[in-house]
Amino acid sequence: MYAGDGSSEYQEFWFEIEKAKSQYRPSQTMNFYVNPAQGHDDFLMSLALLAEAARQYSPRGLGGSHLQSTNSLIVALACCEMVLTGVV
């Protein structure tokens, strides 16, 4: 979450969260979105990606599996940052 500093990022993040809709599918999956007529959903999608990356992250003892798990989280965080900064 962004610090309550009144920045444009802070305002946009909470705007998207407030406008967010969810769709529950028969396959027991969910879709999150902001109606395109109301704005973008970049921050919302980044939050969802971060939550999924955190859910899959499990620290392990020393060894390759811990490194692989850490690398997966770093990649997910980098993707979120790219979306938030408008690179993608």
Features:
88 residues, two-stranded antiparallel ribbon, 55% helix, 3 helices, 2 strands, mainly alpha, single chain
Strand order of the largest sheet: 1-2
Structural class: mainly alpha
Mean pLDDT: 77
Give the fraction of residues assigned to helices: 40-55%
The main pleated sheet reads as: 2 strands, antiparallel
Strand content range: 5-15%
Low-pLDDT segments, ≥5 res: none
Q: State the shape.
A: flat
Number of strands: 2
Number of domains: 1
**Number of H- or I-type helical stretches:** 3
Q: Roughly how many Å apart are the termini?
A: 20 Å
Helix-strand sequence:
HEEHH
Q: How large, in whole angstroms, is the Cα Rg?
A: 15 Å
Task: Describe it.
The chain is mainly α and 88 residues long. It has one domain. It has three helices and two strands; from the N terminus they run H-E-E-H-H. It has helices at 8-19, 42-56, 64-84, and strands at residues 21-24, 30-33. The longest helix is centred in the last third of the chain and has 21 residues, at 64-84. 7% of the residues are buried.
Give a short overview.
The protein is mostly helical.
Compile the SSE list and pairings.
Elements: H1 8-19, E1 21-24, E2 30-33, H2 42-56, H3 64-84
Antiparallel strand pairs: 1-2
Helix pairs in contact: 2-3
